Amino acid sequence: MKLFKKFSIYNTQLTEKKNRRKKIGIIFLSLAMIIITGVLGIDIILDRRETSMAADNSIGLEVEEHDENQSNTDDKVGQSENQMTEKDITANQGDDGSEYYTVPQNNDKDDEIENKSDEEPLAQGGNADPTGEEADGDERVIDEGESVQGSAQSVQRIYNSVVPPHILLSAKDRGNKKIVYLTFDDGPTPKVTPQVLDILKEEGVKATFFVIGSLAEENRDLIKRAAEEGHVVANHSYSHNYEAIYSSVDSFMDEIERTDNLLRDIIGDEYEGRYVRLPGGGFGSKYDLYKATLLQNGYSYIAWNTVTNDAVERNATAEGLFKNFKDTLNGNDFSVVLMHDGAAQKETPQSLRLIIDYLKREGYEFRTFDE
User: Is the pTM value of this prediction over 0.85?
Assistant: First the structure.
């Protein structure tokens, strides 16, 4: 019995040891699995981070490459603009010390545009062209001493100015005067133009009429009257058909020359074809070549910096047109006012009375471009 009891106790102790070993083994196995799982998880996370960083680096390189390509493209464009400018327009010094500019020619030969060295910069109002073209706002003519060569911006400022720099009055000549030029487009017409001429005569004011050649041919008596009463008759193309006029430089000049010949035939040899207003106003770089061609052929282009919007205002009233005029005049002491004496501008004559009265009270001096 004693032996049996000892064997039973020994067997129980052995069983307990085995169970303890199993528990310890299970614990170690569990710990090992936890450690292995943790290590694997960390590896997966690191792999994902590396993959993500590699992708980001790849995208970054592509972006940098794109930016570099874009920068190279912009540099090429800038170089192209500067090359165009240097080729097309350069600043030169005359024998008498005056400064003049060379502009592009159709035959690639240079022609000189005289420019006064003491010009005062001209502020350009940002007005929309009443015939549908948008004007470039806040443009200024070249400041005294500013170099044209190598500056595309300066070239654009020349061509987007109200008048070519070389016909601007110098600061010395202008002094403290406030000067205004009244101009009329799209005539002559039998109903509106005579009213405009009557008012100008009553007020003792001279104006510039940019006439359409085809209408001048139909209303020769109005052209003669305007010239005889001391107004400047100038060129606004023959057809006023944008598609035909701007189809090529040759077509453009054909219209100008045809109108010039007609006006000389009507007015006589005293007619001097010097001033042109481009249909649509000529604002923007797409008109540069036409303006350069005019300058090469001895013409001056005339735009505007003040409007009544009489060609676009629906249900226009004289008071409304006068308000548009005042808003765009904006206190400017050098103003070229755009109005129209076309058949549809029935309120223009009455607005003209208000405009002239206001300008006189404000001390403006009325001029034409041949003065």
Answer: no
